[in-house]
């Protein structure tokens, strides 16, 4: 397990040993902090038929079935096409109701619970409220503010975050990712798995490039190059806009621009962000050039 998650994990183990482990756990935190890995290992621990301490043995039939991704007492729900619907939750309720095939616990994992529709969330309430014995529901979410209050109040909320920045940096350094090599890396120090993912996808050079463009925005003219770089990874545009905001903020702090200019720049960024989901093809390029030239105009004003 990742070093920054160890303390959360041992707290959960402790509550399990004291018979205080809640049957519905909602694990929340930023993208790239290790929530999925945590629920994965918790499901192993809960399904292991050889352990009573929330620590899987890795050898029993249950553990081997899990490793083969073939455990009949584990149900995994994830928003494939944008949302988790009521039919999926009804299937979940059915799954929880039937007895376990391996004779132990049954576990349901729901990833990104904030993507549950209103009716799906309502269908889940009864199962959350009246837990059957030996049933566990492990949920993750990136944004707890989007989870319905009725669901929240029926779960134990566990926040996962990088609290020990040094441990995360060391972990990243072992993967060859450092702020010496990538000036922007510290901006994402609290999302280490996101950086690891970019590294394994080979898009670190793109992020380096976006960082440079954001800090050089006053002299950028090749919008095509920028757009093709943004197209190389999902959500790279949010990374770019984050870099842009931080670059203009630096200029504000350094007294190179005034507050009105800063405000106008952030408005350009917000407009670009809100347009991004609605438009396709050539319009994406237009929207990006509006952003870049719009910010350049603002920066030239005095
Ligand atoms: Zn086991």
From TrEMBL:
One of its GO terms (biological process) is DNA-templated DNA replication. It comes from the Bacteria. Its EC number is 2.7.7.7. GO terms for molecular function: 3'-5' exonuclease activity; DNA-directed DNA polymerase activity. Pfam families: DNA_pol3_delta2. It catalyses: DNA(n) + a 2'-deoxyribonucleoside 5'-triphosphate = DNA(n+1) + diphosphate. The keyword ATP-binding does not apply. GO terms for cellular component: DNA polymerase III complex. Coiled coil: none annotated. Keywords: DNA-directed DNA polymerase, Nucleotidyltransferase, Transferase. InterPro entries: DNA_pol_HolB, DNA_Rep/Repair_Clamp_Loader, P-loop_NTPase. The keyword Coiled coil does not apply. This is DNA-directed DNA polymerase. It comes from Pseudoalteromonas luteoviolacea H33.
